[in-house]
Amino acid sequence: QFPGYDDLYCKFCFVYGPDWVPTAGLEEGISQITSTSEVAPTTLVWNFPIDITFKSTNPSGWPQIVVSVYGPDFFGNDVVRGYGAVHVPFVPGRHTRTLPMFVPESTSRLQRFTSWFTGRRPEFTDPRVVAQGEGREVTRVRSQGFVTISFNVVTKDMKKLGYDVSPSDVQNPSMVPLAERFHRY
């Protein structure tokens, strides 16, 4: 949902720790351009399946997906319309996550005018910075839209490694505290 914007596409990439290795699927990609419809004038639907498999023996650095949304500005230039990131859910099953999206802002009026005039708005050179905490405290951003992602998570051999990822609260597995999701035997 990006009120006031249309003809948007998204890029995705994964950020993960050094103990993680992708074994199948694409680590990054780009979707098609989508538009709003008369039925849902504020909703954009990509229906863009992402399939990836990771392998690790350590939960540290659990994968995150970073989403960047782009679209045309007044002059027809592709500009960033939002960045967002979320961890891949820890618990097997179907999960839905809504990512609040944000865009970097210029720090002065002169920079804002110059970026509007030239069509070059502030954006991150590497969107992976969104999933990392270092240096983010000095970045000025503005909220802009939401992206909803549906996950279908499958885990394998977690118990063999000493981790219990089965939810103790079957009614609402997302409410299980993180410390309870990974029990060491």
Automatic annotation (TrEMBL):
It comes from the Eukaryota. InterPro entries: C2_B9-type_dom. PANTHER family: B9 DOMAIN-CONTAINING (PTHR12968), B9 DOMAIN-CONTAINING PROTEIN 1 (PTHR12968:SF1). PROSITE patterns: C2_B9. Keywords: Cell projection, Cilium biogenesis/degradation, Cytoplasm, Cytoskeleton. It holds the Pfam family B9-C2. Its main location: cytoplasm. The lineage of its organism: Eukaryota, Metazoa, Chordata, Craniata, Vertebrata. Part of the tectonic-like complex (also named B9 complex). It is found in: Cytoplasm, Cytoskeleton, Cilium basal body. One of its GO terms (cellular component) is MKS complex. Component of the tectonic-like complex, a complex localized at the transition zone of primary cilia and acting as a barrier that prevents diffusion of transmembrane proteins between the cilia and plasma membranes. Required for ciliogenesis and sonic hedgehog/SHH signaling. Belongs to the B9D family. This is B9 domain-containing protein 1. One of its GO terms (biological process) is cilium assembly.
